[in-house]
## 1
Amino acid sequence: MKGSRSKSRAQASLRRPVLGFEIVNACATRLCRHPDLRDEILEAFVLEGGLAIETAEVDHAGVLALAQRFRLTGYDASYLWLAQRLDAELVTLDRPLSRAAAALVGLAGLTAPQA
């Protein structure tokens, strides 16, 4: 039992930094693509620290099934799975992800995103 609790704590503590890595990666990519927006991007990066972001567990087998079904990356399929699970609108400019979400409309109560 003790080993199980330690493993759960370790997993929880690992999830928190991963989100930070994703945000850093997004900002770094934006900085490379839009050096003219450097000040705005860095300002948004600093503001992120004050956001209340809720994390959610996902069913990795379900994500994999969506990735295979719609030929998505695991990353994109995770967003699709979560939108489906939360019965939330998925808003994206990514065309393959948008098509996959539109294909699920009516099946899972998703709203077709406006691309």
## 2
Amino acid sequence: MNALFTQGTLTRLARWVRVHRRLVIAGWIAAVVVAMAAAHSAGTRNDNNLSLSGTESQRATAILQRQFPSQGVTRIRSCSTFGTERPTPPRCRRQ
């Protein structure tokens, strides 16, 4: 074998992984479990109260509220079904 390959960092790492394969598999399983626990603890609640002052949309919202106070300003729904073969979800259909 070439000296470059036998002494390289990646070669030493590969050799260590081969020798300690059970430890490596256990480490990957632990990493996946930790990642799943972190994702689960983050939850699925979405916060839709984003306000970016100084933007055009914020100015438009302010104008609508000022000009049409009794109408109220509704939120705009954003639905994306690109690349799916599923029908449009009911919440995204025109009302």
